[in-house]
Amino acid sequence: MSNPVEEFNAYRSKMNDKILADNNKIIKRIFNLDTNAFSKGALDVKTKELLGLVASTVLRCDDCVKYHLESSYKEGISKEEVMETLSIATLIGGTIVIPHLRRAYEYWETLEDNQG
Amino acid sequence: MSNPVEEFNAYRSKMNDKILADNNKIIKRIFNLDTNAFSKGALDVKTKELLGLVASTVLRCDDCVKYHLESSYKEGISKEEVMETLSIATLIGGTIVIPHLRRAYEYWETLEDNQG
Amino acid sequence: MSNPVEEFNAYRSKMNDKILADNNKIIKRIFNLDTNAFSKGALDVKTKELLGLVASTVLRCDDCVKYHLESSYKEGISKEEVMETLSIATLIGGTIVIPHLRRAYEYWETLEDNQG
Amino acid sequence: MSNPVEEFNAYRSKMNDKILADNNKIIKRIFNLDTNAFSKGALDVKTKELLGLVASTVLRCDDCVKYHLESSYKEGISKEEVMETLSIATLIGGTIVIPHLRRAYEYWETLEDNQG
Amino acid sequence: MSNPVEEFNAYRSKMNDKILADNNKIIKRIFNLDTNAFSKGALDVKTKELLGLVASTVLRCDDCVKYHLESSYKEGISKEEVMETLSIATLIGGTIVIPHLRRAYEYWETLEDNQG
Amino acid sequence: MSNPVEEFNAYRSKMNDKILADNNKIIKRIFNLDTNAFSKGALDVKTKELLGLVASTVLRCDDCVKYHLESSYKEGISKEEVMETLSIATLIGGTIVIPHLRRAYEYWETLEDNQG
């Protein structure tokens, strides 16, 4: 049976594959950079994931939030650390962030439930 | 039978309860401020609701718009007043506001129909 | 049978008609301007459609993107030209544009399929 | 001697005149709408000015904030009412609004000082 | 004697050089992409410059607007074409774009005057 | 002799004092939250400062960026860590972030020079 995490990932993969097959050089390089930017450097992967999460949240990009929540989950970041990151996003970005906070919280629960 | 207003409110309440139960101090205080900011002060409640509505609309936050539409409806604000507020939002925020205007208009109709 | 393009257009038309019937002068004039701004002037219609598309994409307005994709399609703009426009949007607007790029790509495919 | 309010208004008038003399029909009509939207309708002028102020503030447009602060001042809106409006903007738009709040507060003081 | 165009370009070059000398791989590649994206492809350079201009304007990035105004000027794009592009930006992005329109208009005048 | 860091801090303090003296309860509480959110919790202060920096940068708030650059500097965060954070901001937020990156880089240099 499908669930929200699998559905999101399946759609994301399917469309990314189509877009990359289209061979637009600029888009391909941006997708590539996206992979590189979150690998270990002066900052560790965990910190970078939280940077990606807070930036996605203040910019109110639900799909970007989902992506970084799943990566954060896989990196072993705790729920408390995620919530502190989201609280900073809500303070900096204001109450318009709250609807995205609700959806983020729900998605995190699904990630945890999938594990059960 | 459920309708869009009830569905929105049910999801909103369920997730707010979960988030608040999580005890993140910053988030709890922001939720609290949100309740206080729209109560009577130098400005009356009606004016404050319209301020919340126009700000939510130019920031293109559908859920925030729905919330302030329902509060406005309960405060007895007229459709004409709501439309003037939304027209100012569309002028200031530009034609990218129009898709949100369509959804706002539809939600207002549901609020009126629920009453019937 | 309905498809995503028809559904989008039907909802858009229905709500626009209701909003315009409501006789708010400011909103009516903005809708009117929207029609005028994309007609031939110093710039041709094709260039203007691409301007509308790139602006809608960086502002992450899915419905505006759909609208300009359909107009672009009807103007005979090629998929390659659309992709270059979307690549500029993704570079200027950043990776938060990517979820909208996925939906734009899918919508363009539907436009092509409808034609088949 | 010039002061910040006069300087802002002089630059604004000079550039608006040049832009309008250029005879772009779309721009002329938008400028025109801007005048109409804030005149008395179902909502009074004072409420509309506050709507313009809160929308400009959450969108972090310093020049738009200045414009609506001066109109608000001329309409006899009190400092307390302005501050409540700005507090709603800061809550909805988040702490990134604070730098604009500082400049708004300073501009309001200049408006009051000019009167003295 | 320095003028606004020269000052802007000098600061831009100086800081870009410093940033690139710093050897952050992600930033270097983004700067690189920026050069590539606006070169001739399915779309000609002139159309791409106008795409860059309208996107920068709706995103209210004065420095990006200046950059694309100068490139547009060098490509031989006419004032009327620039104004149509800016009018579409103002319609889509709303009246909060107007302060940026004033500064764009002034910068275009400087570009023309420098030529004199 | 004054320098950009001192000037920024002096203006910021002066206006914050005035705004807080005005006794608007909502604004006072938001200022208060801002202090609390960046103190040690599940995440350490250094990580939180970088979260504040990346969020401020993608939202293109120069004053917020300056504030978090100074706090980061005082926390002993290295230039390389700051640059990685800013590179993630530029990737996620797009090339419209670049003008803010230039000003951030310049401000960091001033922070280092002040120390010399």
- The CATH class of chain A, by name, is Mainly Alpha
Q: Which shape of chain A, going by the Cα principal axes? A: globular
The name CATH uses for the topology of chain A is: AhpD-like
Strand content of chain A: under 5%
Class derived from helix and strand content of chain A: mainly alpha
| Tally of separate domains of chain A | 1
Element-level helix/strand string of chain A? HHHHHH
Strand elements of chain A, count: 0
Mean pLDDT of chain A: 96
CATH architecture annotation of chain A: Up-down Bundle
Low-confidence stretches of chain A: none
Oligomer: homohexamer
Largest sheet of chain A: none
Q: How would you characterize the overall build of this protein?
A:
6 copies of one chain form a homohexamer. The first copy, chain A, is mostly helical and 116 residues long. Chain A has a single domain (4-115), classed as AhpD-like, CATH 1.20.1290.10. Chain A contains 6 helices and no strands. Chains in contact: A-B, A-C, A-D, A-E, A-F, B-C, B-D, B-E, B-F, C-D, C-E, C-F, D-E, D-F, E-F. Chains A and C meet through helix 1, helix 2 and helix 4 of A and helix 5 and helix 6 of C.
